[in-house]
């Protein structure tokens, strides 16, 4: 719940600010859509590692592990496609 509040607050605070397209920026909300897409792609190994850890170290059933994996993949894919679409839209 706290994470949702922080994300919503930061997205509102940085909504109208200038976005960074070069160099490293720790704050996700100051990045351009192109940089957000790149950061999403670079987080793919972390997502895969998280899925492996959940699969091997959880006491969930096989079905629960598959559902968790599919949900993580779906969220990752939606975020990647959204950032790509918005990057192309802002590029025009």
From TrEMBL:
For this UniProt record, the keywords arranged alphabetically read as follows: Membrane, Transmembrane, Transmembrane helix
Q: What highest taxon heads this organism's lineage?
A: Bacteria
Q: Which regions span the lipid bilayer?
A: 37-56, 62-82
Name of the protein described by the UniProt record:
ATPase
